[in-house]
Amino acid sequence: MSVRQPLIDALKAFASQLIVLHHLAIYGPMSDAVRPWAEPVVDAVSEYGRLAVQVFLVIAGFLAVRGLAPGGVPRPIEPVALVRRRWVRLAGPYLAALACAVVAAALGRTLTDHDTVPDAPTALQLLANVAMLQDILGQEALSAGIWYVAIDLQLYALLVALLWAARRSGVAGAAPVLVVALGAASLLGFNRDAQWDAWGLYFFGSYALGALAAWAGPHRAGRAAVIAIVVLGSAALVLDFRIRIAVALATALLLAWAMPLGLGARRLASPRIEWLGRISYSVFLVHYPLCVLVEAAAARWFPDAPLPAALGLAVAFFGSTAAGALFHRYVEAPLAARAVGRSAEASARPVLADDDEAQPASSAPR
Hints:
Number of strands: 0
Structural class: mainly alpha
Distance between the termini: 32 Å
Shape: globular
Radius of gyration: 20 Å
Number of domains: 1
Strand content: under 5%
Mean pLDDT: 89
Low-confidence stretches: 344-359
């Protein structure tokens, strides 16, 4: 059984709920109907809600490194087996969520022809989404935010490759150096060119900041990790200020400062926060299909009506959490247990024992 980390749970819980609000603000007729009555709120969530993805990227790097290279020293790893295990962990819930999205869109099209409801997928589009290659192949995603699942797999594979190379080199301290080098290349180069945003290299800078935060501490190497976070993040912002990188830097510094000291562990140790953190990935995966159905109903039965639209937004928001809880219980958790069981049978020494460190932090729009 994994050990819960209250600060991580709280960040995941907050960010996942913000993503649901963001998608409700940018898609569909309900937010359009409510906007004249709450324009500043709708505009703020539309514009800045997507920044929650940076929280997830940093947490993902933090958790991955804690499992693979605690203290900056890579554990013995088999790269192909690790990446395959990661794919299995991601693919089961991902494919189930895609099926939900396709069914929800089909039902939505019976209610309305509003452009909020996606068209029926082509064969190529469906195959590209199943293979997590939709952005690389230029195909439209079947559900909002699923691009992150593909990016998560790429980022994990990049990290595994760096740690494997560091261990093979036999050079002490090689792992942090390689992570910093690729993180710098991302922050100072790839992340400044949107043409790279279908690839993990575009996002590796934020992921690397999270990895460095996992190595932070009061010892000499831990202080060096904090300095690297500050230098990397500051250089990226001075060269080209991006609010998304500022959020990633702030999140990494928070983790680097609070986690070694255990700050917030008691105050944030709430069963409700833990629950929301635990189901955050499931909420992300299934909230969009539910929102499509609610938006389709709104477009058919109460278009341009502010009060019913506001009630519809509330139904979609709270319904997304309820749907995520059911999805976690009956889909994500059983598939994760099965994946861990298979990997344990295949190897006498499990690489990642903590399920939190083996799962995606969550997901979000770019």
